Amino acid sequence: MNGVVKRDNIIIKDAFENNLKHINVEIPIDKFTCVTGVSGCGKSSLIYDILYAESQRELLENLSGNMFAQKIMNKALVGSIENLRPALNVSQNYYNSNPRSTIGTLSDSSHYLRTLFALITNYREGLTLKESFFSSNDPTSCCKKCKGLGEEYAVSMDRLIPDDEKTLRSGAISYFKGKETSEEYQTLVVLCSLHNIDLDKKVRELNDEEKEILLYRDSSELIQLKFKTPKGRTKHRSIEVKGAVRELEDKLRDIDTPSVFANISKYLTKQVCSRCQGTRLEDKVLEHSVCEENISNVENMPMNELNKWIEKVKHEYVQSNVHEQVNQMLNQIFIRTNNMIAMNIGYLSLNRSIPSLSGGEVQRVRICKQLNCALSGLVYILDEPCRGLHPRNIISIIDATKDLVAKGNTVIAIEHNRKYISEADKVIELGPVGGPKGGYVINEDVNQERKKTEIILNFKSPKAPKNWIRFEKINFRNIVDQDVEIPLKKITCITGVSGSGKSTLVSVIEDCVSSGKAVKCHKFTNTTKVNTVDYVNQKPIGKTSRSTVASYLDVFDNIRQLFSLTESAKINGFTASDFSLNVPGGRCESCQGTGFQKIELNYLPDSYIECTECGGRRYHEDVLLVKYKDKTINDILNASVSELFEVFNDVIPVYSKLKCVDEIGLGYISLGQMSMQLSGGEAQRIKLAKSLGTPMKKKKIYILDEPTSGLNTQDIELLEKVLLKLEEQGETIIIIEHNIEFIAKISDYLLDFGIKSGDLGGKIVSKGLPENVFRDPQSSWYGLV
Q: Into which family does the record put it (predicted)?
């Protein structure tokens, strides 16, 4: 052993990326380390921008075929890193929007299942089918109508006619809504003129024949139409005047054309493919079965049911000539389904698309995949692995984390859950606050007998609600015949284990309240005028990856206008569009105003580097000479929200939203931060801040999806103040939540779905005051308090 250096720790020296204050940190190798601290304190900067980024760069420099990237990838702002290992990011921000990607394809289970079907079918029927024959991604096997997606777009009547109390003239049929000179509105005028329909009639006053004409008229007769284009040009055109639905159905044929889809998507909804009924496959594939089940049926089974089918297949072919190959395939599938059951996602099926999963579900699927990985000596980075989990489910994540370590790997998790943190070999806490004043190591704990903090619950003083909204006999997904009441002007929390029905209930509430009628339930009763829902979830903000905090908050238009009104801008002839990041003009065209360039790498995820043309400043030099209160437009985008109070204290539309962002604990975020760089918790709070900072004309129902996820105790206290203030203003708030202390402190009413998930769940087992539900033996909280 002489001359061999024992490498016990990854040693990071002088880290000063973003707000980190030249810190030194040691992470034990082949151990489990937790990094924690308030939002914006530097956790992601340390783990992602330094450790993970340097691991990528070092690995890249040893791979061939990436010479260009090797030269321009920037070194992280760190003095040195010793004993670094290859790092794998298993985060919740998994930007896979491909609907063809499923749990089966991501976990490789579908590959083994298709191989099994081909093996048994060929053995039994004397065929020579390939594994790809059973794939919905194979052009010869997939359904020709939906192209293997199992879904198709159709016209949504709820979107087409959102309010039947409106008149035709005021835009009751949204497709015909627009300026009186527009093509769509003129089409409506012609239709009404041809068939003597009163434009001032409300939709609900129309008879069946009139509705048929306005929606489904299908005529080849050409009518001369005069209208104006969006650019104000007058046009004359001979067109076939059709009903709104018929027009949209015609355009649906060209839905693969991006411009067509962009124009009509607001009138559409997704539904099960009318040809394959959601199986994704042609009949010639489905006619082959194993143990009385075709491959679509098997891929749609929950994991527990799938395991029973696996045992049935094993027994059926135990005496056959292919039993060894069959067992080999079945074992590979069984290992993966068992891991997913252990991770409390056994209620999912292999056919479930990845984009439809929550961030927590995706992360657990990816962790399960790594549990099957034969590699060791890796650094696994987990981002809030306990997010979205009920306290009863935390132990499964702890076990999976320790399994990864037992395979000879190092696990680093960014986490706030105290039970999970207490199991770590080392805890690194950053702080003491978020933003510029954070970035210090305030605690490094290596004591394995870490003190468990006692949970103390403080309940609100109960006040009886005066009004309720009621939903009778809800029937949707796994919820069957459930009656639900929600108190108005109060805070209601919805709890239960993963897959028990919480999100399903919330979707029913949103649909009913928004439409004003019973949707997915037998009866909906709302005696108030509350008909607006603000669903504040953790999905990325903005419509594109180019969205910034400023654009999402709707303050960037005001800011660009302020810059265009300065003397310097007027002298140079700059308008507000020259300060835009979305259109050519003042922005840097090399990076299109993002300040960075994407580098596509072989074998590795894409990387982003500072734009070599503008140096990350987003704009041309002449635009950056224009200043508003001594700041350039780039200075404004790079400044934190709290630093801009003084700059915009006299611009109320901007200041009011910035103040809301700060009050909710996000004062450290910069206005120019890209939406894809925000965590799920940050994105959710930005959405809430935008809603709070927008003047409200009427009351609404706020729905929040796990708002405490990723939040430190200090951040949660700020959130509590904001929500209680909303309640005082008479707003109704519904929260899906797992944090027991937060629930006790904030909730007036609690609905609990219990400890069963999937088809066994979907039943509200306890409801009422939180303290009563916590003591109910039927509830998911019984025995935890």
A: Belongs to the ABC transporter superfamily. UvrA family.
Contacts (Cβ under 8 Å, ≥6 apart) of 376? 407, 408, 409
Phi and psi for 279 in degrees, rounded to 5?
Answer: -75, -20
Residues facing residue 34 across a β-bridge: 413, 427
Q: Beta strand 701-705 with 533-536: parallel, antiparallel or unpaired?
A: parallel
Supply angle C-alpha 664, 668, 671, rounded to 5. 95
User: How far apart, in whole angstroms, are the C-alpha atoms of residue 605 and residue 403?
Assistant: 25
Can you tell me whether residue 524 is helix, strand or coil? strand
**Which residue has tokens 């839905």?**
255
- Residues in Cβ contact with 153 at an 8 Å cutoff, skipping those fewer than 6 apart: 252, 255, 268, 269, 270, 271
Element (H, E) at 428: strand 426-431
How many whole angstroms from its chain centre is CA 561? 32
Tokens of 514: 């928004």
* pLDDT over threshold 80, residue 94: no
* DSSP per position, 395-426: HHHHHHHHHHHHTT-EEEEE---HHHHHT-SE
Task: Say what the pLDDT of residue 456 is.
Answer: 81
732 in Cβ contact with 701 (< 8 Å): yes
- The answer to whether the beta carbons of residues 702 and 733 sit under 8 Å apart is yes
Q: Is 736 helix (H, G, I), strand (E, B) or coil?
A: strand
Helix (H, G, I), strand (E, B) or coil at 241: coil
| Two structure tokens written together for 423 | 């199991």
Chain position carrying tokens 């928004």: 514
Residues facing residue 167 across a β-bridge: 202
Cβ atoms of residues 413 and 35 within 8 Å: yes
What's 255-280 look like in SS3? CCCHHHHHHHHHHEEEEECCCCCCCC
Task: Give the Cα separation of 484 and 472 in Å (integer).
Answer: 7
Strands (E), 293-395: 379-383
What contacts 22, CB < 8 A, 6 or more positions away?
14, 15, 16, 79
- Determine the distance from the C-alpha atom of residue 287 to the mean position of all C-alpha atoms in its chain, rounded to a whole number: 37
Local confidence band at 177 (pLDDT 50, 70, 90 cut-offs) = confident
Cα diameter, the chain: 99
- At 50 the pLDDT is 96
Distances (CA, A) of 763 to 389, 423, 766, 769, 772: 18, 33, 9, 18, 18
Mean of the per-residue pLDDT values of the chain: 90
Residue 648 to residues 407, 635, 760, Cα–Cα distance (Å):
54, 13, 54
- Position 431, amino acid: G
Q: Taking Cα atoms as reference points, which of 759, 59, 81, 92 lies closest to residue 360?
A: 92
Angle (nearest 5°) at CA 263 between 257 and 264: 90
What domains appear along the chain, each with residue ranges and CATH number?
A: 10-86+377-444 (3.40.50.300), 153-272 (1.10.8.280), 467-532+737-784 (3.40.50.300)
pLDDT digits (tens, 9 = 90+) for 364-405: 899 999 998 888 999 999 998 998 789 998 999 999 999 999
Query: Which candidate, 97, 104, 99, places its Cα nearest to that of 131?
Result: 104
Question: What are the C-alpha distances in Å from 331 to residues 293, 307, 366, 605?
Answer: 19, 10, 19, 31
Contact between residue 189 and residue 199 where contact means Cβ atoms under 8 Å apart:
yes
Sheet holding 9-15, edge to edge: 23-28, 9-15, 78-82
Neighbours of 246 (CB within 10 A): 17
Q: How confident is the model at residue 3 (pLDDT cuts 50, 70, 90)?
A: very low
CA distance 191 to 214: 7
Burial class (CB in 10 A: 0-12, 13-18, 19+), 214: buried
Distance CA 188, CA 243 (A): 9
| The two three-digit tokens of residue 6, written as one number | 């024992």
CA distances to 58, 339, 615 from 621, in Å: 34, 55, 11
The whole-angstrom separation of Cα 484 and Cα 510 is 13
- CA-nearest of 12, 90, 107 to 54 is 12
The amino acid occupying position 673 is Q
Amino acid in the structure at residue 677 = Q
